[in-house]
Every structure is written in structure tokens, then in C-alpha cells.
Amino acid sequence: MVDTWQLVVFWALFAMMGVSALRVVTSSNVVHAALYLVVTLMGAAALYVLLLAEFVAWVQVLVYVGAIIVLMLFGLMLTRAPIGKGMFDNDQRLVAAVTAGALFGVTTWIIVDAFEGQKITLSKATGIRAESIGDVIFSSFVLPFEVISMLLLAALIGAVVIARRD
Amino acid sequence: MPEGGTYFGQYVTIGIFALVGVVLVLGTLQLAKLVAPNVPDTDKYTTYESGIDPIGSGWAQSNVRYYIFALLFVVFDVEAVFLFPWAIVFERFGTQAFVEMVIFIGILAIALLYAAKKKVLEWQ
Amino acid sequence: MPITYLLILSSMLFSIGVYGVLARQNAVLILLSIELMLNAVNINLVAFSAMFGAEGVAGQVFALFIIAVAAAEVGVGLAIVILIFRNRSNVDVDEMSLMKW
């Protein structure tokens, strides 16, 4: 019963994320493209909830939807992108479509070949709480964790140097 | 970890609330569209500039200072995300977790000090 | 739920991101497409984490790290785009060919 509903919700999210991701790369309005990205990211967050990864789901909402998209919209405002319709595609759209299609075909073939028949048993799976994530970060992944702060420091200093008006 | 039923049951409740919220907003807007008289006119779509005809486009260049503030927000948002699991395991890990987080926050504090030193935090 | 479904969703998002990077001209839109690709990777990691159950914590930790790295990447990337805009007053990547051999 739960399994069937999970599949129904999954396919609904699949359709939603596919359509909105396509709109991100084809929309002729830059602000609409950013807002369609919000739909895709929220779909991913719902997918994480479905996969019992609650903490990652809410981090996705907090950081991606709450912060990164805001940064993107600031970037759009600062670069004076025309708000109305405009041409933002270059002339290699056909090549790009063929490349992306070929990539999708090859990866799908490899995925089906390698993982066919392997299942995620969600109803029985023990979900991962923030506690076990904290256990792992602060024992096994201490170095990457500190490196993240160095990376953020470098990003902020770089952005201040680049974007500051002298 | 909660059993499948209750875990998903709670999210179904959230989903129903979200759905009701969306339907309420969209329904009201559609209702307004149905009831309101529709007289399309290109003048209605122009930017309102205190009564005189608008010059140029409605797009204004934002100050780059806003970007620095948005970036500071992103950096400390990421920091806050790592504070949640830290707070949960803090009691068990004790000094070790404390030192790790002091280093993390210390490095990010350097970023804040740098921004303050470069006077991007001041608004002239 | 078969894991192939999730992996195919992830590869679809990644391919759409590749299309966006190749076909877009506006640098900010290219950054949006890169976000799509990073998100596809995260879906992969969380899917495998769910497959391994309680042993799959590392997958979710890596997803968190990737989200943090994405934040840093967008910060620097947009700063560069803003600088380019200030110098050339547009952000068309096709016209930034000065360093092309």
C-alpha cells in the first residue's frame, strides 16, 4: 500500500521536475528560468523526504531555495538582463540537444544494465536522522568539514575583491 | 526512526496543508478574474511613474553592495546548517566537537573580519 | 522502488543541465544549468544512501558537502559574471573569446 503510493508520488515528482528543468533551459525570460529552478529544487527536496532523508531535504530548502536562488536573482538584477522576452540561446542548440540526448541515452543504458532489479525498500529502510549525520561528520569527515569553511572563506574573499567597487 | 505509516502520514498532513494554501490563493485569483470586468488596454501595462509617461525601461541597475550582503547571508546559512547536527551530537562528543566547531566558526569569522576591514559592511 | 528510476531521473536532470550549458548564451543562465547538474548528483547520492539503509550515512553527508560547495561556487561564479558585466556591459559568453586560441 505504502509502496504503491510512493511510486505514484515519485512519478508525479519525476514529471514535475522534468518539465520545470526543461523550462529552466528553454525559457526566454531569465527570471522565469530562475523560478522554474525553484520548482525543480523543491521537487528534489520532496524526493529526499520520500527517500527518508529528512535532514538533507530541509537543508536543500534552506540553502538552495532560500539562499542560492536569492543570490541568482541578485546576479540577474545586477547584470541588467532584459526582463521581457529575449534571445538567450546561441546557434548551437541542435548540437547541444543531440549531445544531451546521447548522454541521456548512454547513461540510461548503463544504469539499466548495471542496477536492474536492485530495489530500495523504503518502508523497511531505517531512515537517517540528523544525529547519525552529526556522528559521521564530527568523527570521520572532520577534515572535509573544516575544508568547507576554508572554501567558503575563499569564496567570500574572492567575491569581495571582485565585486567591490573601488 | 518513525515507522513508514506515521512518517509519511505526517508529511501527507503537510502536503494537504500546502495544497489547501495553493488552491486558496489560485482559486481567489481565478475568482477575481471571473468576476472582474476585462477591458484590455496597452496603457495599463506601462510602468507608473507619478503620472508622467515612463522613459526607458523599468529595469534599474541594483547596487553591487546588495550582492555582498546576499553572499554573506549564503555563507552563514551554510554555517547554520552544520550547526544543527553539531548541536545534537554535542553532548556525546564533548570537547572534540567543541574544538571542531570553534575552528569552523573561527575560519568563517576571518571572512567576516575581512569584509569589515574592506568596509563592505558599511553603507555610505 | 527500483533504484533505476531514481538514477534515470538524475541522469535526465544532468542531461538537461548539459543542454543548458551548451545552448545558453547568458552567463547567469549557464550557472542555473550547472545548479541542475549538481542537483542531479545529489539525487544520485541520496538514492544510494537510501539503498544502503543505515550504512549509507556517508551519501547524505556528501550531499550536504555538495550543497555547501554549490553555494561557494555560485558566489564566486556570479562575482565573476558581475565583473565581466561591469567591464563589457553584457554577459554573453559567445563574445568572451579573448582568451580563445
Describe the structure.
- The complex is a heterotrimer of chains A (166), B (124) and C (101).
- The mean pLDDT of chain A is 85.
- Chain A is built from 6 helices and no strands.
- In chain A, helix 1 runs antiparallel to helix 2.
- The longest helix of chain B is centred in the N-terminal third of the chain and has 32 residues.
- Chain B has 3 helices and no strands.
- Chain B is flat, with a radius of gyration of 25 Å.
- Chain B is 69% helix and 0% strand.
- Chain B folds into 2 domains: 60 residues; 63 residues.
- In chain B, helix 2 packs antiparallel against helix 3.
- Chain C is mostly helical and 101 residues long.
- Chain C has a single domain, classed as Helix Hairpins, CATH 1.10.287.
- Chain C is elongated, with a radius of gyration of 17 Å.
- The model of chain C has no long low-confidence stretch (mean pLDDT 88).
- The interface between A and C is large, with 87 and 69 residues.
How would you summarize the topology of this molecule?
The complex is a heterotrimer of chains A (166), B (124) and C (101).
Chain A: H1 2-26, H2 30-50, H3 54-78, H4 93-115, H5 130-137, H6 142-163
Helix pairs in contact in A: 1-2, 2-3
Chain B: H1 4-35, H2 64-93, H3 95-117
Chain C: H1 3-23, H2 27-51, H3 57-88
Helix pairs in contact in C: 1-2, 2-3
Question: Can I get a quick summary?
Answer:
The complex is a heterotrimer of chains A (166), B (124) and C (101). Helix content of chain B is 69%, strand content 0%. Chain B has 124 residues and is mainly α.
